[in-house]
């Protein structure tokens, strides 16, 4: 092996370690976001509030992502990416430690807002940095590593966290998150290159690029694609019980099929993003319309429903790397800030879709949610197709960053 080949192999290994570390951080953060659902009743009992009131912990986290993430990114835009990542994880640990030791519901709300904002910041910075660390043509797979960490958390982290919370106590769940977060922090310090600032340092310049009409249009497409899906997914358990005719552990098994397929879809979706992110979104939009139609008509057949759910998971989350890569690319030098807007759009779509689905359930029954989701997909299709024509401005190229550590750019 020549010296050049040896250097190349070492560089490739360092890049894979860095991407794996970013995925680990995303796994921890994804677990912290969703595990609250499985221990909500325990928290309500110990803090003396109703389950409905305890649900505000979910809302607080989502608001932290949607609003706090972009704001934190804006005010920290002058910081090096490596410094920002380990600082974010440190604050994330403090927030979850607060949740582990408090018995005050108000303190829990504060902790969830803080950790939600850090979630938005971390995922945005991590996905933008991942795209910068790899050569052209591999950015989609790099971004998929970050979102794959979140997807895997829904299959492994959330069930385990729920199990621990119910067996030992909900505080133990947060202690586990702190322990995993500490591991992610150590790995970040050890394996993520000391990359400095990756775009313009002026807030005005970042905002101008990140909020350009072409970026906002792409964000709108993502909101529709995720919002339409969650209009149905939010009420999937009820649909399986009332329409498919299954209950208890069988419902969990069907949801597990969907979760595993989603994780596989995110990682596989990265390759499609590299081949053509805009085209992938159109294909996914069409496929989702067909899948949702099928689920509406075969919902009373458990076997066909299980197959449809698996395909839905593959496609529905497989489009996420393409969406995030398009947002980062269209924003050009404002990609660091725009990357957090992608997470905001996704969460806004989830919240809006859940609310719309709730209205449909109340007005027309749980069987109507797939009709509503299908309508959203049909409405989204012209916008998704039109978005394929969006291009970064000619004077706003996407800036690349070498994965080689640069102690001058970021001495941390």
Automatic annotation (TrEMBL):
Main localization, broad class: membrane
Protein name in the entry: MFS transporter
Domain Major facilitator superfamily (MFS) profile: 18-391
TM segment ranges: 21-43, 49-72, 84-111, 117-135, 142-162, 168-192, 215-240, 246-267, 279-298, 304-325, 337-360, 366-387
Compartments in which it is found: Cell membrane
Pfam families per record: MFS_1
Keywords: Cell membrane, Membrane, Transmembrane, Transmembrane helix
Species: Streptomyces longisporus
Keyword hit for Membrane: yes
Keyword Transmembrane annotated: yes
Membrane topology summary: Multi-pass membrane protein
């Amino acid at each position: 092996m020549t010296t050049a080949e040896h250097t190349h192999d070492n560089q490739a290994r360092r890049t894979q370690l860095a991407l794996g570390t970013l995925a680990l951080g995303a796994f921890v953060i994804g677990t912290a976001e969703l595990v609250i659902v499985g221990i909500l009743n325990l928290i309500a009992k110990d803090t003396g509030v109703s389950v409905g009131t305890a649900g505000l912990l979910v809302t607080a986290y989502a608001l932290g992502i949607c609003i706090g993430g972009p704001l934190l990114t804006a005010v920290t835009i002058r910081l090096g990416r490596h410094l920002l990542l380990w600082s974010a994880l440190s604050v994330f640990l403090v927030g979850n430690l607060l949740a582990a030791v408090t018995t005050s519901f108000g303190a829990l709300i504060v902790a969830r807002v803080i950790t939600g904002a850090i979630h938005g910041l971390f995922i945005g910075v991590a996905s933008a940095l991942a795209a910068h660390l790899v050569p052209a043509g591999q950015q989609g797979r790099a971004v998929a590593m970050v979102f794959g960490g979140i997807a895997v958390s829904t299959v492994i982290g959330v069930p385990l966290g729920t199990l621990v919370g119910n067996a030992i106590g909900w505080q133990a769940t947060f202690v586990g998150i702190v322990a995993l977060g500490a591991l992610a922090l150590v790995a970040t310090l050890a394996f993520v290159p000391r990359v400095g600032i990756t775009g313009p340092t002026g807030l005005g310049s970042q905002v101008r690029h990140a909020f350009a009409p072409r970026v906002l249009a792409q964000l709108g497409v993502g909101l529709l694609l995720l919002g339409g899906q969650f209009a149905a997914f939010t009420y999937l358990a009820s649909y399986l019980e009332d329409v498919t005719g299954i209950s208890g552990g069988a419902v969990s098994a069907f949801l597990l099929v969907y979760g595993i397929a989603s994780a596989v879809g995110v990682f596989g979706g990265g390759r499609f993003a590299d081949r053509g992110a805009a085209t992938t979104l159109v294909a996914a939009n069409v496929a989702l319309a067909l899948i949702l139609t099928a689920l509406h008509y075969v919902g009373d057949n458990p076997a066909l429903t299980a197959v449809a759910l698996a395909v839905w998971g593959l496609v529905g989350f497989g489009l996420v790397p393409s969406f995030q890569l398009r947002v980062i690319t269209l924003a050009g030098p404002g990609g660091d800030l725009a990357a957090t807007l992608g997470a905001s759009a996704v969460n806004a779509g989830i919240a809006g879709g859940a609310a719309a689905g709730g209205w449909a359930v109340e007005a027309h029954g749980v069987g109507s949610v797939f009709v509503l989701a299908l309508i959203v997909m049909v409405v989204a299709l012209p916008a998704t197709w039109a978005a394929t024509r969006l291009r970064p401005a000619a004077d706003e190229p996407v800036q690349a960053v070498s994965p080689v550590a640069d102690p001058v750019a970021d001495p941390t």
